[in-house]
Write a structure and sequence with these properties.
This protein is mainly β and 210 residues long. Helices cover 11% and strands 28% of the residues. It has a domain of 144 residues.
């Protein structure tokens, strides 16, 4: 009888050991905080964003010999570096407002061919072109850092400049875009009563990562 009881106890002990094998190892779970992927921003503001479509020129009753400039601020307000593209629209030349022929027998719009401009990016914001610092836009679509490039307004029609700085522009930086203009004294009477209008488009593109 003792022998049978001893076997029974031994069997229960084995079962207990088998059951103990299913226990989990020690553990200490931890979790990360809220993980976030955030896209950067490219934000180009014109005149500090105070006008969605700022106007650089509203020049009336100009005469041969007149000259001046207009400036627009370019503010790179995002948090990513970018590349700046600039393009001119077609030039809309308009003759006399009544569409008739003026006293000089001319009913076409000639101002765009006579008016001369020199657009540039005023990097140091001095109000004057600075060689080797500022970027002059040429009417052939190129850029120059040695001198302003004067040409007729019509010569800039539908032209574009890609990555005008020759590299990236830094976020949170600010430059000025300036157009110098002049009407030569040699233009004669053909531009009387004429007008010309155009738009300039600025596009900030994401700079490629190295």
């Amino acid at each position: 009888m003792k022998k049978i009881l001893g076997l029974t106890v031994a069997a229960l002990m084995v079962m207990g050991l088998v059951g103990g094998g299913t226990w989990a190892y020690f553990s200490d779970p931890e979790a990360t905080g809220n993980n976030v992927f955030s896209a950067g921003t490219l934000d180009l503001d014109l005149n500090s964003g105070d006008d969605t479509e700022p106007v650089m020129f509203t020049l009336l009753d100009q005469v041969p010999g007149a000259a001046d400039n207009a400036t627009l601020s370019l503010d790179y307000a995002g948090n990513l570096d970018g590349k700046l593209d600039i393009s001119f629209s077609a030039i809309n030349n308009v003759g006399l407002a009544d569409g008739g022929t003026d006293e000089y027998g001319d009913d076409s719009g000639d101002l765009g061919g006579a008016l001369e401009i020199a657009p540039y990016i005023d990097v140091d914001q001095t109000g004057d072109f600075t060689a080797l610092t500022d970027w002059a836009l040429k009417s052939n679509g190129g850029v120059d850092q040695t001198a302003l490039q004067w040409d007729s307004l019509d010569s800039f029609a539908s032209k574009s400049w890609t990555s005008v700085y020759g590299g990236v522009v830094t976020h949170n930086d600010s430059d000025n875009f300036t157009i110098e203009w002049r009407i030569p004294t040699t233009v004669g009477n053909s531009i009387q009563g004429d007008s010309a209008n155009f738009t300039v488009t600025f596009t900030l593109q994401q700079a490629e990562k190295p």
